[in-house]
Amino acid sequence: MNAPLHTAETKRAALTVLVAAPRGFCAGVDRAIEIVERAIEKYGPPVYVRHEIVHNRYVVDALKEKGAIFVEELDEVPDGVPVVFSAHGVPKAVPAEADQRGLDYLDATCPLVSKVHRQAERQIEKGRHIVFIGHEGHPEVIGTFGQVPEGDMTLVETVDDVATLDFPVGTELSYLTQTTLSVDDTADVIAALEKRFPDIAGPKAEDICYATSNRQAAVKEIAESCDLLLVIGAPNSSNSLRLVEVAERLGTDARLIQRGHEIEESWLEGIGTVGLTAGASAPELLVREVIARLGEYRTVEERQVKTTDERMIFKLPRQLVD
């Protein structure tokens, strides 16, 4: 009979863990969480939050314990209590409804998402129809579509979708993108759009946010040196799912996990090097938790692999800095 994996001899075998940097929280997520925390301090609990403030169960649960109540629609918010809009952005109709009801609201939309909203408005003012590259049903896509009149924006997800587009002759076009997409996939879709519609207008700078691009670049740096890559993130986190895809395309097995306890001992059979990163909504505490879990099975030799420094900071809403 073979010896069990967790024998003392196996436990002593070193497991190299390459920890990607940058990883985890981005400036937009930091700002959104701080907005909720400061709102609770200023107004007292409960503070309502429309939609998950960020896509991470640990973060959401921690804010619930402090007095946040998460709802999907504004009609679930009682009169006379403050409400926060999530980092993913909301359609224009949502703050308009809040104003109509006299609700105090704080907009935690990531400034880089807000930038895309403003770009969409400008393109419509110029008489252009917008082709928006994004994932159907994602809150950021819903919020961006809600910035312009219905029918003035068309969603595409893939190169194949571009081939199905059919606009009247003479239609002036522009394109914008969701901020949390695959850098490589999006480049392919943009190339297909520009080939099919040579006069299509694009943004002056790419819409994919710095944090998404940086985290994908960090995964590319470590993936080929790993036998397995672990990505800490939620199943509904677009940027986290893209990190898994980046590794898999480089031929590295990758798994999306939310917490350390999900890791099974069998995953480490025949594994010498594990890569580790975290999506933009995952706190560093969960990275430490995962490394501790790996340490229950093997002797961990941790190495940080830094590809760039991030120094971005976003200002808080005026209501919270009085």
From TrEMBL:
EC code(s) of this entry: 1.17.7.4
Catalyzed reactions: dimethylallyl diphosphate + 2 oxidized [2Fe-2S]-[ferredoxin] + H2O = (2E)-4-hydroxy-3-methylbut-2-enyl diphosphate + 2 reduced [2Fe-2S]-[ferredoxin] + 2 H(+); isopentenyl diphosphate + 2 oxidized [2Fe-2S]-[ferredoxin] + H2O = (2E)-4-hydroxy-3-methylbut-2-enyl diphosphate + 2 reduced [2Fe-2S]-[ferredoxin] + 2 H(+)
Residues involved in (2E)-4-hydroxy-3-methylbut-2-enyl diphosphate binding: H55, H88, H138, T179, S237, S238, N239, S281
Active-site positions on this chain: E140 (proton donor)
Cofactor: [4Fe-4S] cluster
Top-level lineage group: Bacteria
Residues engaged in binding [4Fe-4S] cluster: C26, C110, C209
GO terms assigned for molecular function: 4 iron, 4 sulfur cluster binding; 4-hydroxy-3-methylbut-2-enyl diphosphate reductase activity; metal ion binding
Ligand binding (isopentenyl diphosphate): H55, H88, H138, S237, S238, N239, S281
Positions of dimethylallyl diphosphate binding: H55, H88, H138, S237, S238, N239, S281
One protein family per Pfam: LYTB
Details of cofactor binding: Binds 1 [4Fe-4S] cluster per subunit.
Name the UniProt record assigns to this protein: 4-hydroxy-3-methylbut-2-enyl diphosphate reductase
Origin species: Alteriqipengyuania halimionae
